[in-house]
Write a structure and sequence with these properties.
Elements: H1 2-33, H2 40-45, H3 47-52, H4 57-71, H5 85-113, E1 119-121, E2 128-131, H6 133-139, H7 143-146, H8 152-155, E3 163-166, E4 169-172
Antiparallel strand pairs: 1-2, 3-4
Length: 174
C-alpha cells in the first residue's frame, strides 16, 4: 500500500507541474515578448475604452470635467445626450457652469471698478497673485510689476507703515 501511495503522490506532483508550473513558465516567456497585462492607465479608463476605443457618455463628461480642472476654462461644456441619466447630469452641470460664469463675470466687474484697492495673495508665501486698478493706484505700480512679489514688500514686515513712491515725493500708508 505504501508503494501505491507513493505512485499516487508522484501523479499528483506531475499533474501540478503540468497544470500550473508549465503554463506559468509559458506565460512568463510570452509576457517578456509581449506584455500580457494591461497598463495601469488602461485599467483606469477601462478596457472597453483602451482596447476598443469605445465611448461612453460618462467618460465624455469626466473628460470635460478633467480638462476644465486642468485649464480652468469655464467656457467648456459637457456633451449632453438627451434621455439618459448621464445626459441629465451633464445638462445640470452645464447650467451650473453657466451660472458660475455669470457670477465670476459679475465679481470681476465689481473688483475692476471698485474704488477700494483689492489685492489677492497666497497664504503660505504671501506672494501677490492679482490686484485691481485701484490697488495699482494706491501702490503706485502696475500689476505686472507687483505680481509674484511678497505682499510684505508693500505693507512692511515689521508692522511699520510701508513707504510707497508718489509723484511728488514719498508718502506713508496708514
Amino acid at each position: 500500500r505504501l508503494e501505491q501511495l507513493g505512485v499516487q503522490t508522484m501523479g499528483i506532483v506531475a499533474c501540478f507541474v503540468v497544470a500550473f508550473v508549465v503554463p506559468w513558465l509559458v506565460f512568463r516567456a510570452v509576457d517578456r515578448l509581449r506584455r500580457l497585462r494591461a497598463s495601469a492607465e488602461d485599467e483606469q479608463v477601462g478596457m472597453n475604452v483602451s482596447e476598443h476605443r469605445a465611448v461612453t457618455e460618462l467618460i465624455d463628461l469626466l473628460a470635460v470635467m478633467d480638462r476644465q480642472t486642468k485649464t480652468q476654462d469655464l467656457s467648456l461644456r459637457a456633451p449632453v445626450e438627451p434621455f439618459t441619466e448621464v445626459g441629465q447630469i451633464a445638462q445640470i452641470y452645464n447650467r451650473l457652469l453657466q451660472t458660475l460664469e455669470r457670477t465670476v463675470a459679475r465679481t470681476q466687474a465689481i473688483v475692476l471698478h471698485a474704488m477700494d484697492g483689492m489685492v489677492t495673495f497666497t497664504t503660505d508665501t504671501l506672494s501677490v497673485q492679482s490686484l485691481n486698478p485701484a490697488a495699482e493706484g494706491i501702490l503706485g505700480s502696475r500689476a505686472a510689476e507687483i505680481t509674484g512679489r511678497s505682499f510684505l514688500d508693500f505693507v512692511g514686515s515689521n508692522g511699520a507703515a510701508p513707504v510707497l513712491p508718489e509723484a511728488g515725493g514719498v508718502r506713508q500708508v496708514t
